Amino acid sequence: MVLPLKVDILYGPVNSRRLGRSLGINLMPSNYKLCSFNCVYCHYGWTKVHTMDVRDCAQDLPSLDEVLEKVRIAARSGLDFEYLTFSGNGEPTLHPQFPQLVEGIVQIRNQYRPEARIALLSNSTGVVRADVRESISKIDLPVFKLDAGSAGTLRKVNRPVEEVDLGQMIELLCSLDGIYLQTLLIDGSPSNVSPPDLEAYFQQVARIQPREVHIYSIDRPVPDPHLVRVTPQKLQEIARSGEQKTGVTFRAFWMDR
Ligand code: SF4
Fold first, then answer.
1. What is the DSSP string of 52-85?
2. Which tens digits make up the pLDDT trace of 170-214?
3. CA-CA distance, 215 to 63, in Å (whole number)?
4. Predicted structure pTM score
């Protein structure tokens, strides 16, 4: 069983492995998944609307005012959270007003919850937009997905829309300062942990030089039964190897079973 979709703009706070108590902000529709990827491991199931161009779905997206009002109410309440996190039913940076949303939420945070931090969990495809790239420096913890070092593995694992170009995406990630990468590692079919896959992946990480890399595997139900979890021991080995080959700090995360 995959997880149910988020039914509202805000969800949680959830206890996150990396963020502590995180109040999620879902900028995508409440009743279907809208994403530029269709990852084989997505715990929300298969992508229903697979696109970078959300104009046909504009009526299903929350408006700027709706999102800011919900966040303002939560920030003024006694709700206990450490992070406000852009995530949810798809790719948050596909929202046409993503930069304005970041700006508005930063203002609300500064006014009502100066101790809270703002995080973004993105699949990296939105960085083709200059206004999205410009907004990244306002986010305390901008985390970008990189599951593959080659276009072939990206196609097998993340199944992006046609126009996604890994080379361009890497170049644009290289242009951003202070970002984090997150990588979901899977074995079975498909896999992104074969020696050639890891070699290509480490080369891309070395080029991007993120602040840190967070690696993990499938700890929740996934829609494809052919996937195999990478064990915590192997994650730790990959982290050590990644640090040696890239000079970047790798952190491995897993849930005890
Ligand atoms: S990018 Fe995220 S939301 Fe989109 S398909 Fe992959 S895991 Fe699911």
1. S--GGGGGGSPPHHHHHHHHHHHHHS----SEEE
2. 999 999 999 999 999 999 999 999 999 999 999 999 999 999 999
3. 33
4. 0.97
Atom of ligand 1 nearest to the CA of 158: 6
Helix (H) or strand (E) holding 193: none
**Is residue 47 within 6 Å of ligand 1 at its C-beta?**
yes
Query: Who's near 237: CB < 8 A, 6+ residues apart?
Result: none
Cα dihedral 1, 34, 165, 172 sign: negative
Q: Which amino acid is at 69?
A: E
Instruction: With cut-offs at 50, 70 and 90, classify the pLDDT of residue 1.
Output: low
- Here the tokens at position 228 are 């195999």
Using alpha carbons only, give the angle 70, 64, 158 rounded to the nearest 5 degrees.
Answer: 95
Nearest to 85 by CA among 121, 137, 37, 45: 121
Distance (angstroms) between ligand 1 centre and the Cα of 77 equals 31
Q: Are 219 and 185 in contact (CB under 8 A)?
A: no
DSSP state letter for 5:
P
112 CA from centroid of ligand 1 (Å): 31
Closest CA to 38 of 199, 196, 191, 154: 154
